[in-house]
Amino acid sequence: MTVTRLRDIPGIGVDVVGDAADAVGDPGFLRLENLDTDLRPPAVALAATRSAVDDDAANSYLPFQGRRSLREAAAAHVGRIAGRSYDAGTECVSVAGGLNGVLNTLLATVEPGQEVVLCDPIYAGLVNRVRLAGGVPRFVPTEATAEGWTVDPERLAAAVGPRTAAVLMMGPAMPTGLVLDDRHWAALADACERHDAWLIYDAAMERIRFDGRRPSHPASHDGLSDRTITVGSASKELRMIGWRVGWVVGPADILADVRLVGLTNVVCQVGLAQDAVAAALDAPDADADVAAATAEWRRRCDTVLRELAAYPVVPPHGGWSLLIDTGPLGLTPAELSKRLFDRAKVAATPMDGWGPSGGRHLRLVFANEPVERLTGLGERFRQAIG
């Protein structure tokens, strides 16, 4: 590497598998490697996007912090779930997608050499952004059970120490589908206050839960209310991946720093997309829309779990993906990925670099293939493994 900041930042693997599948161009391939979905965005968002093409104001850099309509919608959305109010003018800024928001927030909160607490396994893109910001990942192992992934709240809190700048949590987490609840936030509240650490909450999938419950938001806890920075995105719940719009919501003082980082980094968001995202967030049927999409994603997840019942698959509590432990199969994730690709026309991503335990897991994304195509996945696995 030319610069040291990239020395410990590997790729995420998804692009390698995706590019290979694109090059084959075979419609018979099951595309389980990338977090895409074929479920359409809300109709109101599509209509607003088409209208924006003819709106001269949408073809502008300004306002740099995001259009007022989007910031008001995002602040209200986060406020409804967190059970508190946020000022759209001082406590919300728009960003170019959720991961841009995560990086901007890390750059505003983490000094080089400070630690950021994450669950393991976790999305490599989050780990890499911690490192890019100069932070040191501090991983807390999660446990795979027959019912899904769990993490002990006290173990999570114990990872917060004098070198901790922030705790970066996501729920449901990518790629495990781990869901965090009030027990975790209560434990982290004391730890974050003791060590003056931020709680950065990646809320990209918070309503995509398979238990039917409402999200548990850290800012709803008194001890975390003034320490929580929420990063949201239109990509997952609203299925607006190509719009590249997200938001960061939190206390005004730190949001001023996040805004400054954004102005220095990406500068502004996609003008044509912001009113469309605002319309989707504000729609009267917004929750019902996400619930309907979640029900379909659960059908697909259940299909994969049935098809692979004979294999060491860990069921998710939400999200778009699940993991298979390749250790009991006598294969590395990369070996299983290659066999599935070459022998069974299945594209799936090995999780090297996705936390310390990523090196034994293969990720399967179920959000982008209908039940009809996922049916038969078990036979494809048998063809691949032999």
Describe the overall structure.
- The protein is α/β, with parallel strands linked by helices and 386 residues long.
- The protein has two domains: 4-41 and 287-385, Aspartate Aminotransferase, domain 1, CATH 3.90.1150.10; 43-282, 3-Layer(aba) Sandwich (Aspartate Aminotransferase, domain 2), CATH 3.40.640.
- It is 39% helix and 16% strand.
- Strands 2-10-9-8-7-3-4 form a seven-stranded mixed beta sheet, sandwiched between helices.
- Helix 7 links the parallel strand 7 (164-170) and strand 8.
- Helix 2 packs antiparallel against helix 9, helix 3 packs parallel to helix 9 and helix 11 crosses helix 13.
Total count of domains: 2
Give the percentage of residues in beta strands. Answer: 15-25%
Distance between the termini: 40 Å
Could you state the CATH homologous superfamily of the largest domain?
Type I PLP-dependent aspartate aminotransferase-like (Major domain)
What sequence of helices (H) and strands (E) makes up the elements? HEHHEHEHEEEHEHEEEHHHEEHEEEHH
What characterizes the major β-sheet? 7 strands, mixed
The name of the CATH architecture of the largest domain is: 3-Layer(aba) Sandwich
What structural class do you assign from the helix and strand content? Answer: alpha/beta
Widest sheet, order of strands = 2-10-9-8-7-3-4
CATH class of the largest domain: Alpha Beta
The overall average pLDDT, rounded, is 96
Number of strands: 15
Can you tell me the CATH topology of the largest domain? Answer: Aspartate Aminotransferase, domain 2
Number of distinct helices: 13
